[in-house]
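Hi there,

I know you've been waiting on this one. I reran it after we fixed the sequence typo, so this is the corrected version. Both the input and the resulting structure follow.
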Amino acid sequence: MSVQEPSQDLPIVVTLGNPNTGKSTLFNRLTGLRQKVGNYPGVTVEQVSGYTEVGGRQIRLVDVPGTYSLAAMSPDEMIAVDVLRGGIDDMSAPAAALIVVDATNLRRNLFLASQILEAGVPALIALNMVDRLAAEGVELDIALLSQRLGVPLVPISAAQGTGIDTLKDALDAVLRAPAAPHLVLNPALEDAVARLAAQLAERGVAASAIELRRALIDAGGYAEQRLTQRVGPELEAMLAELRLAVGSGRNLATLEARDRYSWIQAQLKGVEERGPSQRHAAVDTADKLVNHPILGSLFFALVMAMVFQAVFAWAAPLVDAIDYLTSALGAAVGGHLPPGLFSRFVTEGVIAGVGSVVVFLPQIIILFTFIIILEDTGYMARAAFLMDRAMRALGLSGQSFIPMLSSFACAVPGIMGTRVIANRHDRLATIMAAPFMTCSARLPVYSLLIAAFVPERHYLGGFINLQGLVLFALYMLGIIGGALTAWLISRLYWSRAKARFLLEMPPYRMPNPRAVLSKLLSRAVTFLQRAGTIIFSVALVVWVLASFPRDAAPPSGVSDADFAAQQLSDSYLGRLSRSVTPLFEPLGWDWKVTAAVIASFPAREVVIAALGTIYAVDSTTEDNANTTLTSRIRAARHADGTPVYTLPMVFGLLIFYALCLQCVSTIAVMRRETGTWRWPLFAWVYMSSLGYLGAWLAVTFGGRLAVG
């Protein structure tokens, strides 16, 4: 949610922690709905920032995506390091770090905490989920642990809202008397960091200790890659010498894990006492069910069926309501404006354009509501684990499953959902495959052509319908196209080791309504801001192209319908269509079909309105004016009298829409998420070529079979 920023000079506090520690819930508790969503410069990682008040003054909170470690293999994974060292554009160095830790899982959570405490940033720890300690059979001496770590520990329950005021008081104290912890786990490593800093300083290269520490430990990681770009190839020899001095031939990452877990064990000795867990047997039974290869798959299918049913069925009344309100608003506004070009611009361009954006919102909200609830309950992590094997066959991991699923409603949120994928290569492959999934915008096209040209035949006593089979085949065509694309990209383009997919099974939790609402509002607003402006702009462009040039009034003796048809034929859209018609003639399209398809490249569903407009204005009698679009496309003829819509041509058109990338919003989001135009342009050329080839094969071989 966008808010007005009070000031850019406020102290910045970054929140960091492992995934599933309740970090986002705490962030929402501290900031309410006063949040701003954006992207860190140069990467696709989402930045959420907000404001809260501590000690009578405002501070700016910046939420860093959950991570298990500061080790980074990509620019996205380097964000936590860059935030801590103050290396983000337009963001000053943090005044403090708020580390969110799961009190029931200290051994794992303190690994990242120890890395943050080494950064030299004033810090405090929010010990979350203390309300679950008793059920887990855990007793903690929080005061002793705070003393050993050298930073304040505040027990809280972000879900229940307890301890928040105390946490704010502690944060205020840290900001007023900042004392950075001086945690040193491996003195030899710190000495190597200091030597490396001195060597680079002699070459005029300045680097922070945390950045140099990661470059030394994470051999081949992003910190080393980025430093090499600044220093040159000689850095490799410098790092090799220092690594040998510290590790004596042993891997520093392994040594780091050994040192940190030894340190964690020492800190928790006498602090944490674990007794028998009171975890309900029902939870263990549920895990066995949802993770079972067969039973879990069946359960997963039921869940997905419910999600699809909700997205396609529950949204219908809301979509109809919005459509009705848009039409009513257009009629009301048009009734108060004098007839003319301005009235048409407002009603057909502005109001209809906004309506075409808002009409997507119910489906987006319903889909995201399910996804957020499934995520917050802990089920989505288990579904991703279940699908990991299938995704790996395509060269991806289970993390790609959720964005692919989201793309069945709309590729825009699906592509935005790839942010959960840590591996950049997997994320890009998923982004390239997502537009193949059959989104709701394809359904009107499928419905129109199937109903008009596929015979209504029934088999097996009426149980199987031919039209339904064709629709199912089109869905499968999209799935196969996306799967093969991901497989080809993963196997042929990126030669790399298999992606790591470390997945923690979070505990089952009851979703927090406030957190769900906050996430939902944020994603809905983001969708409207990013996609809505694009669709709105395209709608205006289409209207202008179809409306100009135009004469003021029909000549004497020319009917309104003939005049409108001639105006459309002579419009920029008509002229553009005629100029490229030879390119599409091998597909059996005339200039009217070509014009409708061209108009639908910004958004697929535009083809329906474009065809309706073209055939309506082409009517020569009042009777034709009342004919349905289905009857008109059935009756459409070429100049030689042969039908335009033959069965091979129709199947070719269906295949074209199943494979072609006709969505400016998707292209824009791909640009946003990949940070370059290279990938969306490649996707557009690749998918358009596949669509054209598929349509040509259908017309060519379908026509020969028909003749035979």
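Quick highlight: The mean pLDDT is 80.

Best,
R. S.
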